[in-house]
Specification:
The protein has 971 residues and is of the alpha+beta class. It has 34 helices and 31 strands. The strands form 6 sheets. Strands 1, 2, 3, 4, 5, 6, 7, 8 and 11 form a 9-stranded mixed beta sheet that branches. Strands 12, 13, 14, 15, 16 and 17 form a 6-stranded mixed beta sheet that branches. Strands 18-19-25-20-23-22 form a 6-stranded mixed beta sheet, with helices on both faces. Strand 2 (18-26) and strand 3 (31-38) form a beta hairpin. The longest helix has 22 residues, at 806-827. The protein starts with 13 loop residues before the first strand and ends with a strand. 51% of the residues are buried.
Length: 971
Amino acid sequence: MTMTLPAPPRVGERLGCYTVQRVEPLPEMSGTLVLLTHDLGARHAHVIRADDNTTFGVTFPTVPRDSTGVAHILEHVVLMGSQRFPVPDPFFSMIPRSLNTFMNAMTASDWTTYPFSTRNEKDFFNLLSVYLDAAFFPLMRYESFRQDGHRFEFETPDDPTTPLKMQGVVYNEMKGAMASPSSVMWRAFGKALYPDLTYANNSGGAPGDIPGLTYDALRAFHAAHYHPGNAFFYTYGALSLERILAEIEAHVMSRFSPQVLDVSIPDQTPFSAPQREAVRYPSSDTERGAQVLVGWKLGHSSDPHLNLRWSVLSDVLLGNPAAPLTRPLIESGLGSALSDLSGYRDSFREGAFAAGLKGLPAGKAAEVETLVLDTLREIAGAGLDPELISSSLHQFEIMQKEVSNSGQPYGLQVMFRLLGPWLHGGDPVTGLRLDDALDALRADLAAGPVFEPLLRALLDNPHRVTLELVPDPALAAQVEADEAAMVARLSADFTPEDRARILADSARLKEVQGQPSDPNILPTLTLADVPAQVPAAPYITQREAHVQVARAPQPTGGLTYLDLRLRLPALPDDLLDALPLYTYALTRSGAAGQDYAELARRIEAVTGGVSASVGVGNPPDDVDALRLAVTVSGKALSRNAPELVGVLRDLLVAPEFTRERLEQLLKQRLAGFKANVVSSGNVYAERLATAQVSLSGALSERFGGLSALATLQRTVEEDGLETLLLQFARLQALLLSSEALLTVTATEADLGLDVSALTEPLTGSAPVGRPAPALAPRQPQARTTDTPVSYNALAWPTVPYTHPDSPALLVLSRLLRGEYLLSEIREKGGAYGGGASFEPRTGLFAMSSYRDPHIARTFGVFAAARDFLNTELGDRELTEAILSASKVLDPLTSPDTAGSARVFSDSAGYTPDVQAAYKASLLAVTLADLRRVMAAWLTPERAAYGVVTGRDPNEDTGVQDLGLTFDVQSI
């Protein structure tokens, strides 16, 4: 169906109190950009585009002058009740009342933004009203500040004889964040390179500084920064701009007077000489846990020509394994992977370029610095290969043409692209249209060297920092001791009256958290707003050689996507552990006579990237009838689609793995794996639990859980590479004999692509196997690592997709998440997150917590979920849970994924008819169904436990009181 777009306004036209400043066509995305200003000084960017997924965002430049986390805590508090919607958590309350495709708020180093997107027009204006009131007219209750910011609390909140502790959602979030090496590196990098600017502060909040923030300072920061004169509004889609502006005028602008705020960020005074900094983070990995990063301050990131040049140069130097800076760094053997933050960064007002290594022992700063500088000098002297530059420009051409909702909605991607230059005083159009800058760059390249002089200027630039991130096994204990000392220092002069006040404040917060509110004052959708149809992207299939080929026409903007799914035959047990390592190494090694560097250059020159992954599936009626599949995918401009076919063929038919390259890759994977555990501990805790009760869970744990980490570590440390190479050869033969399904997604004109070079070598001679891995031992599992917080998970096996109880279990997960766990684990327990999930295809139900100060308390909350379900719940709670569940069934797709998702779902048995029946059953779920499935499936004896934490949970008397004994192993 063709979408009718509203006509753009004219430059100079007045739309209420707004003046249209510019109207710019965006031919790359088939859209139009309208830039407006309001009489109060507010700026508004509106992108008119034929996309039913409408996006909104309001962004405020926020420039904290300390590390108390004022901007971050404010982001939380403004979403906790407003004048029109005085309920405790309108933001979280709207999630189940909406069909949003994105809802969030984010605090960066120098801005805070509040974006959402939805495909429903009514929902858009519902969410708009809540977001506007939250941002501009929050209640900012003192209790909200104490709940999400910081507060003193007794160990037992109503017992003043127990020790005092510091508590707060953001406080606990940042304790977890600052245990992550990437977070520590990011904060240290900003402070080292821009010591005199807002970037030197921790905008999220340093745990030791957060208690210094006062309630009055929080309110003052809001009054100064959250004014229309300091606001950048953004909207995207096909809705009427006039209607949107009228809503903003009525609910916000009409209630403000002009106000001037200087949030400008000056230039950082240049260094007269390079500097070195070292920063510690909690880790016991002293052998390979260090990182070294060499970074420079550059020119203004809002300069479109400079920004493009550094973006291209960064891609040329570091963008693939064969890149002229990446390869010498990795092959030096000093470290295992590029350090965090390597590359060009335009998120600072003055940009930065950095490169370095991680996977190092401490004390290697000088060696890495010398290696980076010498390599850059060699590159500047020898000159860059023009083919590398051409390949990088080719990648930017793909970036401009591709419209994809993968990762985040496309409308949101557009917002972030224009925000960069816009917020820093540049032209927002340059963030969306690269044509002028690309043409200028190509003209300069034709006239002579461009990047070599840029590199020489970089090497002569004294504003350079060599930053070393050092693992410190004692730091976690020191941080804990420092926290106790801070609590003791701040409470040293407390009188009995002060302690009584803390007791009273705790009681008051508990009272406020328990007060009933009327969520019916919030706007909502109804079940009638849930689309009844299931998306059915068209495609045709035919047998080509031994492969079923599906061709799906989509408006891809001149790109072609290939997705080849290979259903594997039966695998011996030893190959299961090797399989994810094979898919990881496949696209990063050599093939068909080309080593990994030559193949990487070829991939960058003719494709937009290739990938390989392993997946576990099962039919709709049997969660134990597992199927393993390897998916190899790639994209290319349609003119290069034949070359993409050739690349994928060579990867499958003639991969070439060498011992040296495999060792590099496994060390890189190991370094990334270790870093992910601290930042995504809830995922690993869930896998520990599900591996005990589900065959698919057991495979997921072996492929990507902590047992996979242990296997990888043994392979690297015990020199198992020769064995692995032999396993790779066996896997490659099995792949060629697998049952194959290929999806070609492109425009009608490009759909006839000849794929015979890829299909002919695939024999399909082996029947699809049915793996049956051993379940993990049925005992609560805990893994300890360097983190001051915990990640807790409880999991149950339930029923397959077509079982009549499955829709009710999905609704139950959303009900528990929105109505129970959020309040109990986040608001009352102080964890950053807590929720429930149900995966209909695997039948796995889980509850989990994220960056949680508790273990025993949280498992007690999980156990009490059945009691909550027997409280007085009504139609509102049920309807909201069904609305929330329906979003799981209607994920946001885009031309790059719509065709392959439909093809692969149909081939697995999840046809539109099956999915439509599921949705119909979901819409008919009752509260009685929820109580029944809870009693039937989520029983204590069926539950499995997993924890990732920084301490032995068996030493917790609360854990002992629950009757739990964990098998504890160190990561």
